[in-house]
């Protein structure tokens, strides 16, 4: 069989991946995929998510897209890290156990430092603690840099303010109508920042218990998941899963800024990135605005302080402002501008690392 006939290898080749590891363990029920996209800038760092995918190809597509996004996120944030990601297939509310995460840790350890893991959707710092029992290549542990969600949310908040500055003439979010889709770890911290500034926040989430608690705590208005795209809003903040900017939603969204924490927000980058721009909506590229979490993890890898991570996340304001300004000056979609900035850094550092 020709290697190019293998759909997985050809998909890896098309997206520029270096390595994909499929993990299976009958005893613990672990079924996972680890994708290492690029290690030019350094070891591939990216979180592990637990999700009940419909099938294995859906899980593979997600981990390939997410790991590539991490390469770009780390590069544009000026971090000496490559991009990787892992997914564990299953319902986070029923599948998780110490044994499962320790077995996963053994698989991570088998990559000998090429991949550093951290928490993502469906994973807690305690889960990462179990992973750390089997490998040192893990960050976001209790007692160290800890949960990266607050830093991620702060970066999104700063990026949102930068987009607002260009779209509305002021970076004040007081009185702005903001719809936050997904109020898990990051979404809740974002709601806190927004309500403290006096924004009018509407929220939705698939978990009703979380939704009602966050609404009660911060005075946010609850909206049904299917209705979030139809409400009157200035800013749409997708903070759940990706691909929520698509043909259907773009005909419904009434916002003029999209700025949220979710990964891979554009269902089809080339199509929907252009459509968003044509509609006059400012789109803050996802891997740039949500880089606070990986900044937090990098601070742990390098032994830097929480204050450093917070200050670095604050720089997301300047980066988003620069991307949006360049986009408007050149009429090139913001996602393309951000991609180019990341690729330029990888190429430049790649030259430095070439053997003499």
Report on this structure:
The protein is of the alpha/beta class and about 350 residues long. It folds into 2 domains: about 5-65 and about 80-130, Leucine Dehydrogenase, chain A, domain 1 (Rossmann fold, 3-Layer(aba) Sandwich); about 150-345, Rossmann fold (3-Layer(aba) Sandwich). Helices cover about 45% and strands about 15% of the residues. The protein has 14 helices and 12 strands. β7 (about 175-180), α6 (about 185-195) and β8 form a beta-alpha-beta unit. The two termini are about 40 Å apart. The mean pLDDT is about 95.
Backbone CA Rg = 19 Å
Please give the count of helices: 14
Helix-residue proportion: 40-55%
Could you tell me the mean pLDDT?
Answer: 94
Given the C-alpha coordinates, what overall shape results? globular
Strand content: 5-15%
Q: Could you describe the largest sheet, including whether it forms a barrel?
A: 6 strands, mixed
Uncertain stretches:
none
CATH class of the largest domain equals Alpha Beta
Strand segment tally = 12
How many discrete structural domains? Answer: 2
Q: CATH fold name of the largest domain, please?
A: Rossmann fold
Order of helices and strands: HEEEEHEHEHHEHEHEEHEHEHHHHH
Distance between the termini: 38 Å
**Helix-and-strand structural type:** alpha/beta
């Amino acid at each position: 069989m020709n290697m190019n006939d293998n759909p997985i290898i050809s998909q890896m080749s098309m997206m520029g991946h270096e390595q994909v590891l499929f993990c299976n363990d009958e005893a613990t029920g672990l079924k996972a995929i680890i994708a290492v996209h690029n290690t030019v800038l350094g070891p591939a760092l990216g979180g592990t998510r637990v999700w009940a995918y419909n099938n294995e190809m859906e899980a593979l597509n997600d981990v390939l897209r997410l790991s590539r996004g991490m390469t770009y996120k780390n590069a544009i944030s000026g971090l000496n890290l490559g991009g990787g990601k892992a997914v564990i297939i299953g319902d986070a509310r029923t599948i998780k156990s110490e044994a499962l995460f320790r077995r996963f840790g053994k698989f991570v350890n088998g990559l000998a430092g090429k991949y550093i893991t951290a928490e993502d959707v469906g994973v807690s710092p305690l889960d990462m603690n179990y992973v750390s029992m089997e490998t040192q290549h893990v960050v976001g542990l209790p007692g160290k840099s800890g949960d990266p969600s607050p830093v991620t949310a702060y970066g999104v908040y700063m990026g949102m303010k930068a987009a607002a500055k260009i779209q509305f003439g002021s970076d004040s979010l007081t009185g702005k109508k903001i719809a936050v889709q997904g109020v898990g770890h990051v979404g809740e911290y974002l709601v806190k920042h927004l309500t403290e500034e006096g924004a009018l926040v509407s929220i939705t989430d698939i978990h009703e218990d979380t939704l009602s608690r966050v609404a009660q705590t911060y005075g946010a208005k609850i909206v049904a998941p299917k209705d979030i795209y139809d409400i009157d809003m200035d800013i749409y903040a997708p903070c759940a899963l990706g691909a929520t900017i698509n043909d259907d939603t773009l005909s419904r969204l009434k916002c003029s800024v999209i700025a949220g924490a979710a990964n891979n927000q554009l269902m089809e980058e080339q199509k929907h990135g252009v459509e968003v721009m044509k509609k006059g909506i400012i789109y803050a590229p996802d891997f740039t605005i949500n880089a606070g979490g990986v900044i937090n993890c990098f601070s742990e890898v390098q032994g830097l302080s929480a204050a450093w991570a917070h200050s670095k996340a604050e720089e997301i304001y300047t980066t988003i402002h620069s991307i949006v300004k360049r986009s408007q000056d050149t009429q090139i979609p913001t996602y393309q501008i951000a991609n180019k900035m990341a690729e330029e850094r990888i190429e430049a550092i790649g030259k430095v690392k070439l053997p003499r």
